[in-house]
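As a warm-up, study this chain.
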Amino acid sequence: MVAGWSHQCLFLIKRCTTIKQVHQIHSLMITTGLSHCNFAMSKIIHFCAVSDPKNLEYALSLFNQVTNPTNFIWNTMIRGFSISQNPQKAILIFTKMLQKSLSPDKHTFPFVLRACVNSKQGNVIYTHVLKNGLVHDTFVCNSLIAMYSKCDALDCAYRVFDETPQRDVVTWTALIDGYVRANRATMGLDLFAKMRLVGIEPDEITMVSVLCAIGLVGALRLGRCVHAHFIEPKKVIYDSILGCALLDMYAKCQDIDSARLVFDKMPYGNSIAWSAMITGYIQCGRFKEALDSLQDMHKEGLRPDQAILASVLTGCAQLGALDQGRWIHAYIERNKIDLNLRLGTALIDMYAKCGCIFQAFNVFNSLRNKDVYPWTAMIGGLAMNGSAKVALCLFSKMERVGIRPNSITYIGVLCACSHGGLVEQGKNHFNRMTQVYGIAPKIEHYGCMIDLLGRAGLLKEAMSMIQSMSMEPSAGVWGALFSACMIHKDVELGEIIGKHLIKLQPHHSGRYMLLANLYALDDRWDDVAYIRRLMKTKGVEKIPGCSLIEVNGAIHEFVALDMSHPSFKGIYLMLDAIKMGLRGAGYMPNTIQAFA
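Now compare it with the structure written out below.
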């Protein structure tokens, strides 16, 4: 009779879909005496601990009722908690198992190792692996490598890898992934090459890690090779994981068109793929396409998450696409999306860069428990909108409430001083950055200081600061001083800097044009002609000017002498009318710098 009930209960457990049904089966087991049968209890505990929907607390209560749990039951409980929100309970159950003088097996350790949160904890488990003679088991070794990699103990991970006698694709992939996670992508790629030399075929998970490594180092040629030799010939369907990894690799390597081809091959669109595509457009400076992609995603009925919205807001900020930015803000409010710090900071930055400083302040004030990022965005926004003193007051308030500034915060502070002509305050903040907060000046901070001193006419002091820099001055730093020479008409110093800029960037047309404009300012037209000939000799072509404007939510791009816009005839007629109106009002254009 008991055997009959046992078969019936096992049949019912296999078809369970809810915890309520489990309760009913458990009641039946109690009334029939099956609650004392380890095999039957193992099935119901397995459902509660591992299957969906799981209830670990109920599984634990059932586990505690079992008199002599088998290794399978112990492993089930350890497994359940190892993948839960509280993995440390898996360690506690493992410890209880040892206290009962039970021997863990090769199925126990992978689950326990998954629950480890640091290498110290992992080392303790490793001693039990040795004690139980499982140090050469490939399954256990793979778990050890993955644990040490996750805990940033890559030397330990490599030692286990080196001592593993039978390495399979999982062994290699675990260590490759560890190097990638630790931002040691080059070592990960070297390991992948060794893996291929010993004849191990990569699987999909390996390829995801390898593509991530390639993206980190920007090795586009290698990425194309991996795509062609390991993905395309196998006719692998670009699912959400592999497809997104391939797409992300191309985007990080600045080949966004290839990324789009991958995206279009993916069998179905999902939020992860759309996010990768939109973020890729942002990374490559293709902001218009990013906004268009958001609209396409919305038309397909997919809801963008906070990360996607933050990325698109970055695009709006770069384009000055205020209408699009406002639409996203309204979308956030309409759909009651939580305005977390990342999304809030992106909104502040968008409004500030679009000149709507009051709206930026409203978003800033609505954020609770602000960290350094929204403060930094607001300070930078005020600086770029000409509110230098307000920006510095906000920085002082930030310090008073105990928020520690970072290096980006100080870029905003120094920019505020530069735009406000606050030389002494700028010097003071530059010194405090290092002395109070221990922030070493970066090239951007020096650029702000050179701009500050240059605008104030302190050209010799600016030059002295450049010469005292602990790093090689960039073209941007020299460019800031050159602009100051133009403003204050110091042709002698400007000529020295202009020639140096051409040496630094011999194929950058803008550097030649800057020097030519300086010569034009000093009526040295023979030298202007010489610069023109020099550009022609070196094959340097002038990059045409480009501007973007948003009209009724649509982005319009204009390039000098371009006639591709559908309304170009009307646009040029309007430009001619504006020129005539300006001349009629007495305006005389400055044609000295017409070369640029």
